[in-house]
Design goal:
The complex is a heterodimer of chains A (about 625) and B (about 325).
Chain A (H helix, E strand, L loop, with lengths): L2 H17 L3 H18 L23 H18 L17 H27 L7 H19 L15 H23 L4 H20 L2 H11 L1 H18 L3 H26 L7 H14 L15 H23 L4 H21 L22 E2 L2 E2 L4 E3 L2 E3 L1 H24 L2 H11 L1 H6 L4 H35 L24 H11 L5 H16 L1 H4 L2 H15 L8 H7 L6 H4 L5 H5 L20
Antiparallel strand pairs in A: 1-2, 3-4
Chain B lengths: L2 H32 L6 H18 L8 H28 L8 H21 L12 E2 L8 E3 L2 E3 L1 H23 L1 H11 L1 H6 L4 H27 L1 E2 L3 H16 L4 H25 L4 H5 L1 H15 L14
Antiparallel strand pairs in B: 1-4, 2-3
The chains are: A mainly alpha (about 625), B mainly alpha (about 325).
Chain lengths: ~625, ~325
């Protein structure tokens, strides 16, 4: 008997034991376990404060205990909706694909997160003797819901359309969910130590899987799809509220950076995700925008320091120059096969860096100060609002980083708006057609070259805009060290804009963020950028391995989940033609593509052979 | 500008071009059989250099041999590492994606390229614990340069040119005269039909990766010998330029790729040499050398995307 059959026998045995548990007993197990775990968070888990996060105090939860408490309460709530023979009436529409999957996800999340912390305590402090009673209780009680949830029979069923709720109720639900999301995101960004962040990621990951499997996300995205304005309002409110939740600059800076990178990644997503063009030198367009704006910002280090333009004029010029650069690169290459574009953009990124380095008066005319960069860029001033000063708004002090945060929220909102409007228009449909089969698209009268060039130019322009806004945020990066000396400098240097720089935003980071998050989606790059920024930021282990992380993320995602963590609705429809709703069948793809197991972007079933690549 | 300087520039260009050509053949071989631009080829090249250095530095006694005697061992080490990496990448990363949309293998290749660079930068160690986060020194010939009427020819240049000539001749013989080579050509022309004729196309694809990797390893050793150092990120620019060379010659075509490499090497050396000559500051030439290569790439794509000589489909391999 070989190894796999041992494992199979064991699995079958476990399944038989679990299956024999009475459902009522299983529910009791879940309830008891969750209550016990929730209670244990009020106790100390370890005797010493050597482990971070207040785990050694009685009476209230701290650090990782908060995660356990939240997950236990969520499990209890999910269990509550599953009580009775067919579940509590009225809650079924929330979990269309079955409550048991949700219970399993939450129970696993609690086991993973809590179990990880307990092991971390024992590991870091040198032995399980460092766990006190509370810790043991937590460890044992988080096991029970897992056993219970897996011995409940699955209550899967095909999702049914929800009964239409009144508009105000729908709006209320959206606001509630988005605000909950804000709290979760805020907790993740403000986690104080590595173990808490890992515990948070484990919890969010497993719980997210449970929520997705039980159809909660599906329900919510259907709700947002019919309530676009309300969703937009809710998201904006949440984003602004985040600034009010922060008391110091520390996490606002993090949020600033995440927003810049997410915005740029979103711009890249238009090029890569919507039009299916692989642009690996995207960050150079960001650099073009940033350099252009820096030159006309009026800093003394600029060659044209006498030119001082207001913000809107900087924005217009920065975007225009970036678009022109995009057209110069795109016009010759977009006529050819997609692969050429990748290598030419890679080359362009390198040319940009070399050129900016060389325009220093030594190797070329003096324009950019070479490697030193253009420094001392003044803070923005829009309608008399000085971004460098602290302002009191509604009783909350908005410092420099918070000011830029608000600006970045506006820029992100603008990019999201453009992204979704374009995607839902004739242009978006043309892009979808081109990326799936350019030959067929052209036969249908879609002008492939023109639309590809449009995507490329639009992407470059958005990068230019973000580059301008990014000036502020990159100042944040430099500023982190600078504040210590009480002096903030805003600088652009060539090395900020390379394919694999030591810190984001580099093209590798952006591409990884788009691919990890989900190509062609709005929330994908936001999630991807947040994860890829936070992981090296929070975990010292990854600090010098972030490029390795980006590279592996690209390879692994392509193998295991090419549609990204958040799959696009249109893409999903393309992959599952039979189940899709009539409105989405218009864009559904031929069955030939499904046979190839493709995820739906940039594919071409009939590969034209050879390098006779015009077209 | 004297004739001697011009000839010296031509000599430099030829040597540089021979190296680009050796790398370019790798892009061409892989592109020929599966129409994939193997972005990670630059890193395969870099790994070849580190493989050779490992043999030199870690195997006791090799460093004490005269360099000419140590070179064959280093070649074996470098080629082995490169081929292993290329074949591993093909099996683990590219093959599962062969039916996937075209963007997937491209993105995988970019990810692989990043990851391989970082693995070397983070974990490669020389004896004595020297890490490879910066350039590491590579053995170089100690002999004096040959003086040919004022044109200086370094010993490493002779090795480079000889290696390129031998490799190209060997490759041409293999591709055109042997059963294996014809099988690769058949796979490149029409994989389905080739399979019907009893050719194991998967093996031919692996073989193409391996041949390209072997030549890249030779190129990496010549680069190490010429500059006396190698670094974890040297594959990036070298790979870009070699790709330019491949496009210049007409990608998918072995002989023309080599020619493209030589043209690119000459253009690079002459343009920067001439620029340096006519300008007061010397930096003007060298600092812009890399830019010309990419400007040339864009011009070629704009004017003549099928390559200088155009594509001859029949003898593509």
């Amino acid at each position: 008997m070989n190894k796999t059959s041992y494992a199979e026998t064991a699995a079958r045995g476990i399944r038989r034991v679990l299956g024999s548990v009475d459902p009522r007993a299983a529910k009791a197990l879940i309830a008891a376990g969750s209550l016990g775990a929730a209670g244990s968070t009020l106790l100390a888990w370890t005797w010493t404060t050597a482990f971070p996060g207040d785990l050694a105090v009685y009476g209230y939860p701290g650090g990782n205990q908060l995660i356990t408490l939240a997950l236990s309460i969520l499990t209890l709530l999910a269990l509550g909706s599953a009580l009775g023979t067919s579940g509590l009436t009225g809650t079924r529409w929330l979990v269309p694909r079955g409550r048991v999957r949700l219970l399993r996800g939450l129970a696993l999340a609690n086991l993973a997160s809590t179990g990880y912390v307990l092991i971390a305590i024992a590991w870091e402090l040198g032995g399980s003797a460092n766990l006190v009673a509370g810790g043991w209780i937590a460890g044992l009680t988080v096991l029970l819901p897992v056993v219970g949830a897996y011995s409940l029979p699955k209550d899967d069923r095909p999702p049914t359309p929800p009964r239409p709720a009144p508009r105000p109720v729908q709006t209320g639900v959206i606001f509630l969910v988005v605000l909950l999301g804000l709290l979760v995101a805020d907790f993740g960004i403000s986690t104080g130590y590595a173990e808490e962040f890992i515990g948070f990621c484990l919890a969010a990951g497993f719980a997210g899987r449970g929520l997705a499997a039980s159809g909660v996300f599906e329900r919510f995205s259907a709700l947002t799809a019919t309530n676009r304005p309300a969703t937009a309002c809710a998201c904006l409110t949440a984003a602004v509220l985040f600034a009010f939740l922060q008391t110091s600059d520390a996490y606002t800076t993090v949020a600033d950076n995440i927003l810049i990178f997410a915005t740029v990644a979103l711009g890249l997503n238009i090029v890569v995700g919507l039009a299916g063009l692989l642009d690996v030198g995207y960050v150079a367009f960001l650099g073009v925008g940033a350099y252009t704006a820096a030159l006309v910002s009026g800093t003394a280090a600029s060659r044209f320091s006498s030119v001082v333009l207001p913000f809107w004029a900087q924005a217009v010029i920065g975007v225009l120059v970036a678009v022109v650069a995009g057209l110069i690169i795109g016009a010759p290459t977009l006529r050819l096969r997609g692969d050429y574009l990748a290598i030419v953009t890679l080359g362009f990124g390198e040319i940009f860096r070399i050129t900016m380095n060389n325009l220093d008066g030594q190797s070329g005319p003096q324009i950019t100060n070479g490697p030193e960069g253009i420094y001392g860029i003044p803070d923005l001033r829009i309608f008399g609002y000085d971004f460098g000063q602290t302002h009191i708004i509604l009783g909350h002090a908005f410092g420099r980083f918070a000011n830029y945060y608000l600006l970045l929220v506006a820029v992100t909102a603008l990019v999201v708006f453009i992204f979704s409007r374009v995607n839902d228009s004739r242009i978006g449909r043309a892009w979808a057609a081109i990326r799936e089969d350019e030959t067929a698209a052209e036969a249908m009268g879609v002008h492939g070259y023109r639309f590809k060039l449009l995507a490329f130019g639009l992407g470059a322009g958005l990068a230019g805009l973000a580059g301008l806004a990014g000036l502020a945020g990159l100042a944040g990066l430099a500023g982190l060290a600078g504040t210590i000396q009480g002096h903030l400098t805003s600088t652009v240097t060539p090395d900020q804009y390379t394919f694999s720089a030591s810190a984001p935003p580099n093209s590798a980071f952006l591409l990884a963020a788009v691919v990890l998050g989900g190509m062609g989606t709005v929330s994908g790059p936001l999630l991807g950028a947040a994860l890829l920024y936070l992981i090296p930021y929070k975990l010292q282990f990854f600090a010098d391995k972030q490029l390795l992380l980006f590279g592996l993320a690209l390879v692994v995602m392509m193998r295991l989940r090419p549609e990204g963590l958040i799959a696009d609705r249109r893409r999903r429809a393309e992959l599952h033609v039979q189940q899709s709703r009539p409105a989405e069948e218009k864009t559904a793809r031929s069955s030939a593509l499904r046979r190839t197991g493709s995820s739906g972007w940039g594919s071409r079933t009939v590969r034209r052979r050879g390098a006779s690549s015009r077209g | 500008m004297s004739v001697t300087i011009l000839l010296q520039l031509v000599e430099n260009g030829l040597v540089l071009g021979a190296m680009y050509g050796l790398i370019a053949v790798g892009y061409t071989m892989v592109y020929g059989v599966i129409q994939l631009i193997n972005f990670a080829h630059g890193e395969i090249f870099m790994l070849g250099g580190f493989g050779a250095l490992t043999v030199y530095a870690w195997i006791p006694g090799v460093a004490h041999l005269p360099l000419l005697a140590a070179l064959p061992l280093m070649l074996i080490g470098g080629v082995a590492v490169s081929v292993l990496a290329a074949v591993g990448a093909e099996r683990l990363a590219y093959r599962p994606l062969r039916t996937a949309p075209r963007l997937a293998p491209l993105i995988t290749a970019i990810g692989l390229s990043l990851a391989l660079q970082q693995v070397v930068s983070l974990w490669y160690r020389l004896p004595g614990g020297v890490n490879a986060k910066g350039p590491v020194s590579f053995p170089s010939f100690s002999g004096k340069a040959y003086d040919l009427g004022g044109v200086l020819i370094q010993p490493a240049d002779v090795f480079t040119l000889a290696a390129a000539a031998v490799c190209l001749a060997g490759l041409m013989w293999f591709v055109e005269r042997t059963r294996g080579g014809r099988a690769i050509q058949a796979t490149a022309q029409d994989p389905e039909t080739a399979r019907l004729m009893g050719i194991d196309t998967d093996r031919m694809i692996v073989l193409s990766f391996a041949i390209g990797a072997a030549l890249a390893a030779v190129a990496a050793i010549t680069q190490g010998l010429r500059y006396g150092q190698i670094s974890f990120d040297m594959g990036f620019v070298a790979g870009l330029k070699a790709f330019t060379a491949a496009v210049l010659g007409g990608i998918g075509n072995v002989r023309e790729s080599m020619l493209g490499g030589i043209v690119l090497g000459l253009v690079e050396e002459l343009s920067s040499g001439v620029l340096a000559h006519f300008h007061t500051t010397a930096q003007y030439g060298e600092a812009w050398a890399d830019v010309w290569a990419f400007v040339l790439l864009i011009l070629v794509l704009l004017v003549r995307p099928q390559g200088l000589l155009g594509e001859r489909v029949a003898d593509r391999a």
